[in-house]
Amino acid sequence: MNPERSLLLVGATDETVAKAKRLGLHVVLLQHPTKTSAEQQRLADHVEVVDYTRWELVEPLVKRLWDRPGFAAAVSITEPGLENAARVNDLFALGGTGYEVTRRFRDKALMRAHLAGLDADAVRARLLRGREDLDAFGETCGYPFIVKPTDATAGIGVYRLDGPADADRVWAGVRRLSGTRTDRVSTLLLLQDFLMEEYLEGPEYSVESFSCAGRHVVIAVTEKFTDRTHFAELAHAVPARIDTAVEEEVRAAVTGFLDRLGVRDGVCHTEIRIGARGPRVIESHNRIAGDAITDLVHSVYGIDTVTLALAAPFGLAERLPDRPEAHGGAAVRSVVGRPGDVVDSIDGAAEAQALADVLAVRISAEPGETVRPLRDNWDRLGLVAVTGEDTTAALRRGAALVGDVVKVRLRSSEGRLGLAQAAPVSDGAVRQA
């Protein structure tokens, strides 16, 4: 192995390892015991199975790997691996994003505190320490406001308080979740602290960007559809149906935010709402987006953010135009069912995946599972990602695919069979921002 062409990859999917190899890189993979696969063992040049979220285990291991086989860059594009990849960058002075900046992205309370000193329009926020803090924050900042974990993903543990009467319910939920694992699939993230913050009005969007030596390129603005009560993500659509002036405001808001956070290199996924005061950041992540948004962006813009993240440290990333041009549209639709029903059977996923306009079909539900109330992304039954001649067409095509081709049959407690459907969203031609 040539250390100058070797990448230390902290956590990865099979696809991520394959893309690194297609770039001609040697891959030294740190993989969590719950995430290993035969394909990764086959593709990677060196694999170490370790809980890569624990620095006390990672540090001595990477010191040994630095000597042999060696590596020139450390990268993670998965949330649980970001902080320790950053620590490796700092430990060996590899460049890239270091721990201080990464922690600002990962810790939502730290992000808010950092921005409060730099931005006159910063979102008001405060750590939640006790039940009385909920009343105090409501009195000071008004209602509604949000309570959420400082360190979590997928909409887990997010609550909206519309008035003082909600405080007991929310505090009980916080007490129940504190100290538990956030991800019901891999349990890699631990819920600890919670944050209270001002509720941002307006439709929600996400912004996919790539930074190189401090130059930030907004690749795509994605429409994001969530339920106002539980915040589970119901759909995504690219490109966002907003006018040019609003898009320019979004670009300026996000690039300014990235400058204030201190990021200079790599991919970022930033979530915003556009209200009466313009675009304001909900949160951001110095990694790729989830929910197949990377597939939507690749389809519409021809830009693979996974490959960009892997290629950039080696000088292999393409220089992007300031305003990437969209070609067509693409959308993700979430698959949902009635709470309490039981998954009876699943058909059509392979047939749908083979269709020319289908980018991805991911059904996480399995026969025998009970449909849970929709509280966060892990409560969905799956998703489909499709293309269309424009954004509206893609949203409608995704909804039609669920039920027509992808058939998740559900059985009620009375024994009646029905089909899961795409979560309902507005697919009108223009979403008012």
UniProtKB/TrEMBL annotation:
Keywords linked to the UniProt accession: ATP-binding, Ligase, Nucleotide-binding
> Would you say which domain of life the source belongs to?
Bacteria
Looking at the record, the residues that make up the ATP-grasp domain are 112-314
Keyword field contains Transmembrane: no
Q: Which Pfam families match?
A: ATP-grasp_4, LAL_C2
Gene3D superfamilies in alphabetical order: 3.40.50.20, ATP-grasp fold, A domain, ATP-grasp fold, B domain
Q: Which SUPFAM superfamilies match?
A: Glutathione synthetase ATP-binding domain-like
What molecular function terms (GO) are annotated for this protein? Answer: ATP binding; ligase activity; metal ion binding
**Entry's PANTHER family?**
ATP-GRASP ENZYME FSQD (PTHR43585:SF2), FUMIPYRROLE BIOSYNTHESIS PROTEIN C (PTHR43585)
In its UniProt entry, what is this protein called? ATP-grasp domain-containing protein
